[in-house]
Amino acid sequence: MPLERERLTLHSVYIETNSSEATMQTQIDPDYYDRLIGERDAADYLCYSVRALQNWRVRGGGPLFIKVSGRSVRYTRRDLQKWIAEKRVANTSLSLVE
């Protein structure tokens, strides 16, 4: 039986995830989605630049973040996944509501 694959689209960037691998990852590390990750890791996770994350923090419209100190921010994979899910549309005539 072939592995189940889910294709996630985000601004013409295709990220393929293997649901079996994601399940295995959370079994190995139950805090995987809730662990704090840095700006670079969050940008890599989303396939965007660090500068894009910085702009979204100032202008709005980006994923939720945690301000640890005056100059330090962190993200959780759960918040990144939620933000991705909110960006899903069925066709191009649907607009994104922010």
Query: Segments where pLDDT lies below 50 for 5+ residues?
Result: 1-16
Note the overall shape.
flat
Q: Which second-level CATH architecture applies?
A: Orthogonal Bundle
In angstroms, what is the radius of gyration?
15 Å
- Ends apart, CA distance between termini: 40 Å
How many domains? The number is 1
Which CATH top level class fits?
Mainly Alpha
* Count of beta strands: 5
> What is the helix fraction of residues, given as a range?
25-40%
Q: What name does the CATH topology carry?
A: Arc Repressor Mutant, subunit A
Q: Spell the H/E element sequence.
A: EEHEHHEEH
Major sheet size, sense and barrel closure: 3 strands, antiparallel
Strand percent estimate: 15-25%
Mean pLDDT: 80
Polypeptide structure, described:
This is Helix-turn-helix domain-containing protein. It holds the Pfam family HTH_17. The termini are far apart. The protein has a single domain (5-86), classed as Arc Repressor Mutant, subunit A (Orthogonal Bundle), CATH 1.10.10. The protein contains 4 helices and 5 strands, in the order ββαβααββα. The chain has helices spanning 19-28, 39-46, 50-59, 77-86; strands at 5-10, 13-18, 36-37, 66-67, 73-76. The protein is of the alpha+beta class and 98 residues long. Mean pLDDT is 80; it is low at 1-16. A 3-stranded antiparallel beta sheet has the order 3-5-4. It is 39% helix and 20% strand.
